[in-house]
Specification:
alpha/beta, seven-stranded parallel β-sheet, three-stranded mixed β-sheet, globular
Amino acid sequence: MRLLVTGGAGYVGSVVAAQLVEAGHEVTVLDDLSTGHEDAVPDGARFVRASITEAGDALDGADAVLHFAAKSLVGESVEKPGLYWAHNLGGTLALLEAMRERDVRKIVFSSTAATYGEPERSPIVESAPTRPTNPYGASKLAVDTTLTAFAALRGLGAVSLRYFNVAGAYGRFRERHAIETHLIPNVLKVATGERESITVFGDDYPTADGTGVRDYVHVRDLARAHLLALDACAEGEHKIYNLGSGTGFTVNEVIEVCREVTGHEIPAVVGPRRAGDPAVLVASSDKIQGELGWKPEHTTLREMVADAWAALSGK
């Protein structure tokens, strides 16, 4: 197939693009490099440096789109909500219109479990209420809503994948953000000397060790789910799937595994809870396992951390 991967120079997008190339597809990566890296575009893929609002020509001859291009910092979304609505929703609307003009009828969308907000139950299932607590989650939910409408009105075949934390690396393709908000890479930065310590936001939650529990999925498993979702795109349907481990790990467990893998002490400082942080955020992946046959294969925290550390340190 001829495929356009928007945001394909970013972390997850680059891994998906690499797996698509390996599977024999003809891949074009479109990225404005505002947060991505040109050297993350996999060998064998064509690269177009442009915004998703300028995706028209890159769509010529495409059979489907895998859409990762998005602003994704929760804090920034609160400070600059207009930017997130304009880019995440407005940019996607422009992309969908360009797809309509060129009769491209399939799209896999990188959504987020942030669309659920603070869940009533865990693990979170797809039928859970969607009550995002920030403009980032709200803008992603708006795209999901738009895809449902486009599927019904225009015959689009769409799949949205909602997930929390992605971890690990895929060869040279790794997580590297100018502003890093994710736990594992920030803990590993302590091991490399880029940070003095890691802050644990609250140790009095009703969990096994008092620290928050979060879901982690290995990036190679996550990428494989996108390939399955591509095959599952059906005209006139918008399918939504969660991707998760079903269990999750505490912050202290993550830090301890990072210590073991890196051999560094990694000092941790306990700080106050952050407003709006639930004790447990874990997504159920029963639906995608049952319907598409996806099952995470790289499920241990040690493997995720070890792969991330090897890519970061070159070891």
